[in-house]
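SEVERITY: medium
COMPONENT: batch folding queue
REPORTER: lab tech (J.R.)

DESCRIPTION
The queue accepted two submissions in a row. Attaching both inputs and their returned structure tokens so the on-call engineer can compare them side by side.

ATTACHMENT 1
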Amino acid sequence: MRLFHFSDDPAIGVFTPRPVRIPSARPPGRDWLNGPLVWAIDAWHQPMYLFPRDCPRVLLWPTPDTTPEDREQWWAGRSCRILAHIEWTWFDRLCAETLYRYELPVDPFESLDDAGMWVSRTPVTPLHIETLTDLPAALRAEGVELRVMENLAPLRELPRTSLHTSSIRMRNAQPGW
């Protein structure tokens, strides 16, 4: 297994645990997830972070529980493993952004059993850093079909389907989300 952290900073020598920027409501006993942590994503789920940091995006993929109807509606004739949606206002930034993919050691991390997210409560020194300058190509290489829309609001109902849906940075989306 491989774990990564994505950043626009090319010079992180050590990841120091820090609290999240905007705390989330957490289930009872999980409030520690708003406290000081180092966050990582596993290799399969890394396409969720091949975007500028604040870019609102909606990604979806089938799961073993996806119904034939949802699979037909969203995947008919497609060979991609993930569909990613962004707004046109972010497309130029996506194309121009340089990201740094830090590979992290697995040892200090614990799985959250949630869309490939892992956390460490202790500082973490990266193993390797890779510069990514063509994010659309990186998405394609990961089996992601990118869809660009005027507004992501029509996707609001996706969590009610049988697909896995990850909506990230939606506070930055066009009105209507």
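ATTACHMENT 2
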Amino acid sequence: MLLDVTSHLMSAIDRAARLRDPLQRMADVAEAGEERRAATTRSRRRRIIAAVIAIIAGLAIVMPLAHYRHVWSGRDEVASYETPSGAHRFALGGASYEVTRAQFEEHLSKIDPEPIRKYWVAIGGRRFPVKQAVGVGLGAERATFSSGQALSILHKLGYKTQDSPP
């Protein structure tokens, strides 16, 4: 009987050993698959991070250049729109200004024109340098806008400007 039990145990151990190999192989394959998936995920993550960095670097280069597009196109654009009351609203130098053409002319009627260097506009029969006209007409500091922006504002208000001294 001891021989039967021993024989039976040896047979069970052999069967367990044969079963363990396929199970072990399946476990190894599963682990290898997980490692490959993890490596693929890390690789994808690295590519996405590299793409995001490239986009941010590109924007860091392009955005400041877009700010200076007016220099290349020869004009300065000013954000503006006409309100329902007929007034024009301008965003200039970080501030917002709202003025009608009549108010603009009224502000300029109270001052004398300065000497003209290059650009000028005729308002009320008098010739003003464009920066003086816009500065006084809107009540804006001249240092906060360029001559190109002044020209844009005057055109949006319906004035014709000249680029040579009278």
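NOTES FROM REPORTER
The chain has a mean pLDDT of 80.
No errors were logged for either attachment.
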